[in-house]
Amino acid sequence: MKKNIFYSFIVAILLSSCQGMDLMPADKMSDGDYWLTENDFKIYANGLYPSLMKFNGDDNLAQYDQKADLSTSYFGFNSVSNGRWLPSESDGVWDDCYAYLRKTHILLEHVDALHTTDPKILRYKGEALFFRAYQYFKLLNRFGDVPLVTHSLDIDSPELFMERTPRKEVEDAILQDLYDASLLLPKKSEMAVAETGRITSGAAVAFRARVALYAGTWAINHKHRSDGLALLGIAKECARQLIFDKPEYDLYYEASLGADSYRKLFLEDGDNSCESILDYQYAKNMKGTFHDMADKVSAGYLLATKKFADMFLDKNGVPIDNVETCFQGYESVQSEYEDRDPRMTCVLQVPGRKYIYVSQHGVATECPVSFMGICSTNTGYRVWKYISELPDIYHVGAYYNAHIIRFAEVLLIYAEATYELEGEISDNDLNNSINRIRKRVGMPDLTNEFVTKYGLDMREEIRRERTIELCFEANRYDDLRRWKTAEVEMPLPLKGVKFSNYADENEELSPSLDSDGFVITEDNRKFRPGRDYLAPLPTKQINMSNGRLKQNPGW
């Protein structure tokens, strides 16, 4: 549970976010009165933190994966699969990332100009290197090849219109920045309490593991570079360091909560816990430092689908389409939730149970799972993850943190990288990774014997575990693309519950149904393999480059 609100750090971030990209414009600084003390660099570095993914905005941590295949919304955010994805003049990711990159380079250049060996100042060089890697990874994930700029630019700098740098070079630069950052940043155990939320060495290592896993699997599945296995080796080694070498992180678990520890992890209880490697910080009772994620999820901005619900194993660890499953079927509104992985009812609301929706006026109302009413859903599934029933969550805004990197992801990286490197994974490695995650919720171990007994595929089970554990945390869309399975998964229709179980209370509704009676929420979905794995570059940038900047294929 969050016991301390780190006001000075959060206020600094809030100010930098509200005042724009630079707390003090570079052209108004002089080396004589700034860039001299640790505090100078700290204040400037605070302005980098608003670039982290968080709960605010439409493309936030929870809603990012609406571009994928497991969730939907009343508000139609998925332009990837609905055929409305078109090139645009500008792109928010492009503009924001390059703006933050300029700010990052200003900090790096002033640290280097000091020729200092003071670790108190060099840690902010480490933060800047982390954020440079962070921005380029966002650009790389979205566009592929992008211009790799390594210093601050002026309005007449020729690099403003440079060609795109090959993906391999950008990936290598990101990995090097994160390695260098890890050597300059303090460990979590070396941080003062008031510094909680700042980038640590562990965050740099964990993010390097993520980047290397993405780069390695993209290289192998898209055949864009020949050293994909070496990249997977980096991913595994980074994860191994965090798991085995004097570990500072663990899975959040409270014995009194049991399996519900997973749900509480994403509310106030899990803020800056032992599992948090990097959290975006929010604070109670401070204007501008809260979010409306609970309200958005309750209002239908994030709705789960049948495909997602079906991914949860039964309580014995068997897929529900396996002949040996104890799955209870879809014959009642509650039956599909029975005898399942406990995370299912931590993530999804169970029909028939009483949930509380607290309006912005502080009025508490029962919120049943329904196709109509204040908490309606067009799939029959309602998300429970991220929703707190505390009254002030809706009255003044939610203030629990957004987990950007957590230890469970590191364990999953270790498992996936190990399997992809070797084509197999030992039970010992499974026990040190996936089975630690399963134990939190009381699920049985994944073993090689189990996979053989039930005719399963180890790769698919590793991917399933990742999808379930990290659901609605901005991973699924990127995972489908790096695995090169988006062309198979994305065109499938989005479906909901068996409507006959809800028909009596929704007589006036006549949703589209498939041959088995399941709601079809979105049909005729599209994914063009030769085009849609990458986003279109903003046309304004292409036009300004005088032909140097080329558009992605198919756009």
From TrEMBL:
InterPro entries: SusD-like_N, SusD_RagB_dom, TPR-like_helical_dom_sf
GO CC field: cell outer membrane
Protein name: SusD family
Biological source species: Bacteroides caccae
Family, similarity comment: Belongs to the SusD family.
Pfam families, per database record: SusD-like_3, SusD_RagB
Domain SusD-like N-terminal: 93-213
Domain RagB/SusD: 298-555
Organism lineage string: Bacteria, Pseudomonadati, Bacteroidota, Bacteroidia, Bacteroidales
Compartment list: Cell outer membrane
Keywords annotated in UniProt: Cell outer membrane, Membrane, Signal
